[in-house]
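[DERIVE STRUCTURE TOKENS]
===
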Amino acid sequence: MALLRTSRRASGVKWAIATLLVCALGSCALYEALVPGEPRYAFSHARHVADEGLSCEDCHVPSDGGGVPSMPVAAQCNLCHQELDADKPPERRIDVLLDGNKVRASRRGALGGDVIFAHGKHVDSGLECAACHATMEANTDVLTLPRADMASCTSCHEERKLKNDCATCHERIRSDVPPEGHDALWMRTHGMTVRAGHEDTASDCSLCHQESSCTACHLSMLPQDHTDYWRRRAHGISASLDRSSCMTCHRDDSCVRCHSESRPSSHVGSFGGVTSRHCTGCHFPLEGESCSTCHKATPSHDLATPKPPDHLPSMDCRMCHGAGQPLPHVDNGDNCNICHR
């Protein structure tokens, strides 16, 4: 019977491993289906601009209506590459960057659908391409080009005394209208977004909020996790992990006052006593003076009886103490030299 159970268990393990392998292969296939393949070698602007002396307009033809300049097509590339690629292996030819007549690489400078950007107006004002497309001339890998940065747009508008409100560059986003992500669950989840520290514009609370508004709200609205169970059992763990968050509403004196009056829930009837192990939960290794908040009369560990002169740190204290000689406190197995120096 035991052999039969072992066989069934082994068979179950094999089926589990097989299932995991199938799921892993399926995930890879799904990933490849959803994520388009990148070019086999990256396009270098530095080679074309710095080395060959080409201008932006040679490959990106300006739009007659002031729109976004076009991306190069196969015919433009082949004006040079038909001769340059003649002796190159297939994987090093310009064809690997093209999908039919169009460039396969994604447009790294593409703006979101909500953004209003009059490309022709910026060009007509005398701005060079590099004013917005920074590091382009030195870039050797088009896939590493930085995305458009809203901070650079707003600072440029400030320098030129231009309109800099939301409606200048956005169709829907307004300072007086909550963003789409501010749904019904936003009150519960916004704290995680703030603590995550994302650098993207959508996560920049300072665009609409001042830090004082956050503090005012947290002072008047009790956090939803502040239940009675949290107050009695869990708040200590939260405070030890993120004390700065607690400091939004609480100060050290309020913690001290409460802990001086309220006995911790861990201090049950059997808690305490000279030979009790309660102290080992916090004091080994020594981690602070939190107990002195309430136990002000408790002697400091620094006042522990020193070792006699003939007792070396390398000695095994338990050869005598605890075996035949009683200890004045519980022995949790740690190094006696921590306190008795």
